[in-house]
Amino acid sequence: METYVTTPGLISVLAPPVAGAALATCALVFLRPKPVAGWRTVSPGLGYWIALLLSLALSVLIAWVWAFVGSSRVDGAFQMRVAWWLALIFGCGAAFAGQRIVRLYRQALRWRGDVLAWNGSGGHVAMRSLVSLQTSVLGFAQARFEGGRSLSVDLAAAGSSDLIEKIEDVNGLAPADRPGEH
Hints:
Layout: H1 7-31, E1 40-41, H2 46-69, H3 76-107, E2 110-112, E3 115-117, E4 125-126, E5 130-135, E6 140-145, E7 150-154, H4 160-170
Antiparallel strand pairs: 1-2, 2-3, 3-4, 5-6, 6-7
Helix pairs in contact: 1-2, 1-3, 2-3
């Protein structure tokens, strides 16, 4: 290892990617909902898995260069500070992607016809009981239903756009140029 590598520096640069990998692995092994015949689901999309894998790869590669290769250039100390920060940032990206994957699997959002169900919904929720549907700048759709139930849908997840279109169709909120049932 290079002389500037300290135990706290090494732990802080490796903890986020390890956390991201552990979260995604636990989500796949323990939290992945069992498919139910006739129900469609919202699950982590390809984008989350690619973000996780690429962030992990870049974080570990840059951390390896920082810890074992170093730099012999005149500005090597600055380069290694930048490398440390890059490894940390990409590691945090992996941890974020892992956390999103866990949350989507824990939510277990599914629908069939005009009925919704998700963990924490307290049973089936009729799509027709929609009170409001709003989208946020952060990429989520917030649906509020009669009885105080609310649902947050991650628009980057696989199946989420189909679900939102279905909710809009059922409640007459679909744009005029979009065909009805699809």
